[in-house]
């Protein structure tokens, strides 16, 4: 998908739909899984995450992804109709930056290494370029997803995903439904949450 600069950051979709006084995405829209280390991994209840886990079970998958020591890499995978699926490689200390998914739901599953997901809590997301909104005093703690773990998220989800390992190349599998039409990129500036750019699928 997208250009190296945008692609997985993972793409974003239509107008942020946020609820006043909550995080950018309702908590009920998210699920996470932790595999049972002794038996078979429990099947996630979210269909997107379930598909990601099933696809990740293919032992040949990792061999198909070219890795680069300095930048993230990705390949597009076959996916259910109307969805996007991407396999992404994360060299040490690479990240997406803050972004949403343009209104698409999504899920990602870690096949190798660990990823740290940060989310933001604001009353409402900025909708115009360079618009900024104050961040809530208390922000959600980052979520660390180790190998075999994953999460799903709803259409207003905003996050920053980071491979904070100094040595390990991480790999993750991402699903979006519908296929990402656009992605908004945000930044934190002086305690405010700022809308920087909007990237469209045709730019990827
Ligand atoms: Fe994302």
Question: What are the bound molecules?
Answer: fe (ii) ion
What's the helix-strand series?
EHEEEEEEEEEEEEE
- Report the helical percentage: under 10%
Helix vs. strand class: mainly beta
Binding site for Fe cation: 99, 101, 159
InterPro entries: CDO_1, RmlC-like_jellyroll, RmlC_Cupin_sf
Biased composition (Low complexity): 22-38
Organism: Embleya hyalina
Briefly, what is this?
This protein is mainly beta. It is 5% helix and 35% strand.
Overview of this structure, please?
This protein has one domain (7-14, 22-203): Jelly Rolls. It contains one helix and 14 strands, in the order βαβββββββββββββ. It has one helix at 47-56; strands spanning 31-33, 73-76, 84-90, 94-95, 98-99, 105-112, 115-119, 132-134, 143-145, 150-153, 159-163, 170-177, 182-189, 192-200. The strands form three sheets. The chain has a six-stranded antiparallel sheet with strand order 1-10-6-12-3-2, covered by helices on one side. Strands 4-11-7-9 form a four-stranded antiparallel sheet, with no helix packed on it. A four-stranded antiparallel sheet has the order 5-13-14-8, with no helix packed on it. A hairpin with a 7-residue loop joins β2 and β3. It binds fe (ii) ion. Fe (ii) ion binds next to loops.
Structure characteristics:
1 helix; binds fe (ii) ion; single chain; disordered N terminus; about 200 residues; four-stranded antiparallel beta sheet; six-stranded antiparallel beta sheet; metal-binding; 14 strands; globular; Jelly Rolls; mainly beta; about 5% helix
